[in-house]
Each structure stands twice: as structure tokens, then as C-alpha cells.
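Here is my example:
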Amino acid sequence: MFRRVSRWHSAIVVAGGVSLATVAVASSLERIAISLNSRHIQGALFDLRDLRLDWRGGQGSITVGVLEALGQRWRDVRIACRKLSLETGAFRCENGQIALPRLPPVALTLTQQGETWRLLLQPSAGERWEASYHATGSARLDIRNGKPELLFALLPRLVELKNALNPVGRLNGRLEYQPRRFDGTLNLARGGYASVDGENAAENLDATLTLSGHAQKGQWQVKGSVAWDQGAIYSKPVFLKSDQQHLSFSGSLDGKGWSLETATLQWPGVGAISARGKGDWSRITEGRLVARSLELAPLGNTLLQPFLESRALPRVDLSGQVGLDLSLKDNALVQADIVPRDSGFVLENGRLKLEGLAGRVLWRGDAPGEGALRVGRMALGRLESGAFDLPLAIWTQSFALAGGVTMPLLDGALVVNHLAAGYARGEWQGALGLSIEPVSLELLTPALDLPIMSGKLSANLPIIRYENREAALDGALVVQVFGGYLNCRDLRFLDPFGVRPRILADVDARHLDLAQLTQTFSFGRITGFVDARLAGLELAAWRPLAFDARIESSPGSYPRRISQRAVDNIASLGGGGALASIQASVLRFFKDFGYRRIGLSCRLENGVCHMAGIAGLDRSERYAIVEGGGIPALTVMGYNRGIDWEELIARVKAAINAPDPVIE
């Protein structure tokens, strides 16, 4: 073994750390073995520690204990050369392989001629990574059909990301470095990745990165751009497709951190977003993002809707524009200034609409904020309001109305006396107090797709609480209608903003005028009054799922008459047995009849209405709906105990639409 440690080290010092060594060995001395060591070699772009060269009979290896370059660090790097040539002023490693931790061996050719070093990596057929370095400090990297996984593996800080995403695609480009200056272009074609958990993926990506920079006052001044030309990215729950987005940026960086002087994202169809900020390599110490005018419709489809779907929330379609000014500090949002311009949204199936939203909302993370909004129109189904103002007081995770809000509603108004809501433990909760100033039922009922009724609707709901995705009314809702009133108790809305909201309630009705009621619904004329009870009502999408209902005559003395058409319609609800007997008897010549009592109940379960009549008058499968009284008297019986709910509704609609019978 021929060993010259001190001479090797002196050669490095003389070369200024540029070349590994200049060693002259006669080519005829193939039997000589050489082992050379160096503790530290430092160049403009790299730092080598514990380097060892072993050469024997034209073959050899190079081992590096620690290699640092471009802010990265590798340990135990080994280059094996099947043909290693050491000559005066020249070095050549052919048919070699480089082995890095967590990377399969890669085919390598390493040469030195004079003051220039060249490194060629060929991980696979057609793939080339070629780097050159000159003693003057200049360097160049050319990539042809390179696979992204090699780039990730060569950057130790990204190894875990490579293993998590399994990137694919092809890279082509060039990076050139001169002392104190660099520039380059890198193109990704047919790129993609997919995480094991399926929450992050991309496919068919085409993008181009251009980058340049120069050293100035101990920092690198950098500028560049990214053009995204094709492909799609999924990061649960957001799915983002290429719309020819283009990002340009400029800033500076050093060993301590970075500063983004300006960055502008041009997003066709959405708008322009600009940003600036600074930070160290672990956080954003401060930053600002500004968008003067963004189109909400495409932005909502891209960002908001996937978020809602992932949480089983109903679809929301946005419209109009919005301006944003966001401030960040220590990786956290500290202020948001939001300016809607003729904005709005539509909740799934159009059950809630808001249009013409304008004004400003200012949120601060460490101090109270405020908002002043103007709403042009709000609609609940076909029920629409006029324009109104929304004054807001805003805190970190809560907000409240800064004053009462009056929404014009038909010929009356909906008044929100107070509203407060907050976000805690992953859920929204709040309280609402409102009242309804008298609204004509003649205008309200058709807006609710109900038969036209007479009278006024007014209400006072002092507290409606919302928590655990449930809105509940404290107290009772009382509505005056048909000469009597409805008393709604235990009113609850389950998941009111969800895909399938439900309503639960118990309803009592007292002294409803049958003349008004039957005239309103064109059911045939009945005089008198009834009480009703609707217990355990459960609605989904405004369709009943369950209830236990009963209607019966109100106590007291009053005229009680029922027309033949009303008798026919009531009989049809109970099975139609009475209708044939009326038509076949002398009773068909009478326009109306007297009655003593009316009683009917329905218990809805699993889509079937279980029927019953006046207590004490049931006869096996038959039940009395109308008990006769007076002259002429007529008792109407029902013959079907169980009726399909949809069939019953069809009978009611047919009864309402049927013409009056002809009296001969």
C-alpha cells in the first residue's frame, strides 16, 4: 500500500479546494495501490468532510463522510468506479455507480480535465442528469427526461415527502451558476403524485418554472415565475384544475430566512391575487395577501363546494365579486378585510337566497372588528324580503348584530331583535330573537304554496337557540288563524343547514271556524268549530314522517251543518262506504245535513295513516267520522283503518278539486 496523506492534503490547499487532487501516477504502474485521505475540502458550492480515495489496478472508489451543497447534507456517499484513471491534470471515473442513503445505485461518470469537473448520472434509459463545475466557481446542471423521484431523493429534506407522495413525470431544464449569479428553467411534463391515504393526488401536470438570482449584500435576490398549463390537483377536499394560472414572484433569501417582496397569481376567470411577506425557514413571521376583485362563482365551485360536500353540508352557489385583504403573523391569520360587491348565494334547492350583498366586514384576531352590510334581497323559497342593513360586531370566533334589523316582508316585516353566534369545539352555536309584524295571510299563503287564507300572521319569538346542529324555540309560537289560534310547542329544527333538515313540534289548535276553513280549501261547506292536536310531528323536506293527529268538535253551542259535498269528501277519506248509500237514498235531495259531532284521528307510521273516529262510536273495522243530529241527520262512517299516506293526500287533493254535486 502506498500512502501519502500529507501530500494529498497539501494539494487540496494549493488548489484552493477546487479540485480533489492532482496526482501523477504512471499508467504502467497498475500493481500500485493508492489510498488518499482529506479531512476537509471546501468550494464555492460544496463542503466535503472525511473524503477518501482508494485506487488499485485501474479500479477505485471515492467515499465522502459528509457532503454539503445548496443547503443540503448527505452522509456516507460512495462512488465506485470500474475504470478509474489518475493522470497529471486529469481524473476519470467510468462505468461507475453512486450510492446515497435511501437511493438505489445510480450509473455515474465523473471526469476532471484541467480545472473542470463533469458528473453524469443516468438512473434509467433515456434519463440524464449532467452537472459541470469549473475552478472559477461556475456550474451548470442539465436535465433530460429526469424523473422527479431522483430530485426528491437528492434533497434529504424532501425524502419523507417523496415516500409519502410517490411522484411521477418527466423533468427537462437547465440551471446555470456563475459566481454571485444564477438562472434556469425547469419543465414538468405528465407529472403527478398520490398519497397512500388518498387525500392528496395530482395527474397529467404540465408546468414550467423559471428562476434567476444574484448575490447582493450577503443575500440572494431571486425572481421567477411558475406557469401551470395542464392537469389537476386534489388535496382533500379541494379539487383544482388548470386554468392557465400564472404566478410571478421576487424576493430574497439567506441562511436565516426569506423575504417575498411581491408575488402575483393571475387566475383566469377568478382574478388576480398578490402577496408579500417574510419569515424564517419554519414559519411566516408576517405576510399580506390582497385581491381587489375576485369572481365568487368559480371560486366557490373550486374551494367552497368540495369543503361542504366533505362535511355532508348542502351545496351553496356563490355569485358576484369580493375584495380581500388578509394579514398573517407567525403562521396565523390576524386580520381580514372583506368587501363584497353585488354578492350573493343560493342554498341547495333554492330554499335560501341572498342577493345584492355589499359593504365591508373587518375581522381582527386580537381586537374587536365590525361590519356594515347592505342586503338587496333575501328569499326563503318563494317568500321574499325587501332590502335591509346588517350592522355587525365581530370577535375572534364569534359575531353579533350591533343593532336590530328590520326586513320588509310582503305588507309587514320580519324583525330580528338580536342575534349572536360563535364557533367552539368544532361547532357553531348561538341565539336569535325575532318577531313578525302583522302580515296578511292573503299574501303569505300563496308565497308558501298554500291555499289562500284570510287574516293576519304575527309572532314574537324571544329566543331561538342553536347548538349541536339543532335550533330550538324557547316558549311557544302562537298564530291566529280561521277565527281561532294555533299553539306550536317544543319546536325544533334538526340540522337546519344540512342536506336533510328535519322539524319536530307539537301543535294544538283551538276553536277553528269550520266555515272559514272549508271555504278556504273548497272542501264543501261545514259550519261549526273544531279543536285539533298534532303530537310528535316530524317533517323532513317539508314532508311528514310521523305524527299523531286528532280533530274533534269544539265544546259549546253553535250551528252545526254539513253540505252534501263535504259529506262526500269526508266519506272518500274514510273509504267511500257512505257515498253510495247517500246517492241511492232520498238523502241525495238535501243540500246539507245537521250533525252532532265530528271526530277523526290519524297516527302516521312508516308511511301508513292508522285511522280512528269519534270515541265510543267505533264498530270493529268501521269508525264514525260524523255523528248525525237534527233533521235530516246523517252519520258518516269510515271503512279503512290503514290508508297509505300518499293515497290519502291524493284523495284530499281530489276532494278539493272536485265540483259541487248537482241536486235534482
Summary: The chain is about 15% helix and 60% strand. The radius of gyration is 41 Å. The CA atoms of residues 322 and 340 lie 4 Å apart.
